[in-house]
TrEMBL record:
Upper taxonomic lineage: Bacteria, Bacillati, Bacillota, Bacilli, Bacillales
Name listed for the protein in its UniProt record: MarR family transcriptional regulator
Molecular function terms from GO: DNA binding; DNA-binding transcription factor activity
PROSITE patterns: HTH_MARR_1, HTH_MARR_2
Stretches assigned to the HTH marR-type domain: 21-153
Transmembrane segments: none
């Protein structure tokens, strides 16, 4: 194989890589959109919006959380957190309390009403997610998780 042929193979490989990257982006975006629509539909039946559910789910599963740290854990803007916590407080699902060792920090904590709600709906939510992802077996889910983590870390490190 001469140098010109090698350059041609490299160019074709690069073009194929570009095409596959574009296709992967489109397929991943469409899949995420379909999954999110289904999850949002399920959550709306609870009388919550997806952001409220995400905050409530975090505190239900991880315990009391500093209000200023919730945004980074559920991937919402920190400017929205106060509003979301206010809404959940109005619904009597969360309450604010001072941190026991640092009185400058306010914690969001789940109320008994919030815990009762989540005890009822969280198992249904998990089952719904299982139904959504039933198109993959356990091994495929593990592989996809590993690949998406790798992809996400690479994308983060491009900066």
């Amino acid at each position: 194989m001469n140098l010109r042929n090698i350059k041609g193979v490299i160019r074709l490989t690069e073009e194929r890589d570009e095409e596959m990257s574009l296709k992967l982006f489109v397929v991943l975006t469409r899949a995420l959109d379909a999954i999110q629509k289904r999850v949002i539909e399920d959550i709306k039946h609870l009388g919550l919006n997806p952001t409220e559910f995400a905050v409530l789910e975090l505190i239900y599963n991880k315990g009391d959380q500093p209000i200023q740290k919730i945004g980074e854990k559920v991937l919402i803007a920190s400017s929205s957190i106060t509003y979301v916590v206010d809404q959940l407080e109005k619904k009597e699902l969360l309450e604010r309390k001072l941190h026991p060792s640092d009185r400058r920090v306010k914690l969001a904590t789940i109320t008994q009403k919030g815990k009762t709600l989540m005890d009822e709906v969280f198992p249904k939510h998990k089952k719904g997610l299982q139904e959504i992802f039933a198109g993959l077996d356990v091994k495929e889910k593990e592989q996809l998780i590993d690949q998406l983590k790798k992809l996400g870390l690479h994308a983060q490190n491009l900066n």
